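SEQUENCE-TO-STRUCTURE ENTRY
===========================
What this section holds: a protein sequence and its matching fold, both as plain text.
Question of interest: how does this chain fold, as expressed in backbone structure tokens?
***
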Amino acid sequence: MTSNTIKPVRLVLVTEDDPLYVKQFFDVFFQEYPRDSIEILGVTILRAFHEPLTKTAKRVFKFYGPLDFLRVLPRFLLSKLAGRTISKLALEHGLPLITTPSINSEDFINKIKALGPELIVSVAAPEIFKSRVLSLASIGCLNIHSGKIPDYRGMMPTFWQMLEGQKNVTVSVHEMVEKLDSGGIIDTFEFPIKPGDSLDRVISGTKQEGARLMIRILKEIAVTRAMPKSTPLIMENSRLFKFPQPSDVKKFRALGFRML
């Protein structure tokens, strides 16, 4: 079957409003995805961490500390003021936005039913997909996670892999199930961690290369019209991480790593 005869796989993207790092995934994805094999029906962008902005600001301040917070804040504000958001990027590429306060709401479920997607793809979506949402896509739902699963399930997997002395950050694309980061692995790649590295560089790199990994998988699905064979997870010794605390960041810096 040639690329000219492949019917594009129809998908909906769900993500969070992050102009610094998650946007870097979409800078690559929207620029490089092949329109002849991937059709994006719409993009849903949820509030980061699914919480008020003031709570997110306090969380980020505690995470970075005063000095690095003052360094990262102008980057965030400049991105916002300049309109360098995922929503604007999607519109520039002619992609419709699907607004909703929650992906598990009746409103969202009805909107997606009407579109009839074959796939739903989660990129740092800040909500757990419940069974009704997972059943909306005829082929299934995919998530990209910047961590080796089930060892590094949960929040900020890049940080935890660096803190625990891994030589690489493992980025995983896996099937979605109701239990967080627990579906079978479809494919992975490893992003090398350098001595004295920065969290900023590693997250940026994994987002950009993660977009290319997702494109390769979606192109395969467009040909086969089926979910690729996955490797089931052995959950016996799985770990679920929460957002890092200042004490964790102190240990991170003591290893010679930088936040920015």
About this structure: Helices lie at 22-32, 53-81, 86-92, 106-115, 131-134, 157-163, 199-224, 246-254. The chain has one domain: 3-254. The chain has eight helices and eight strands.
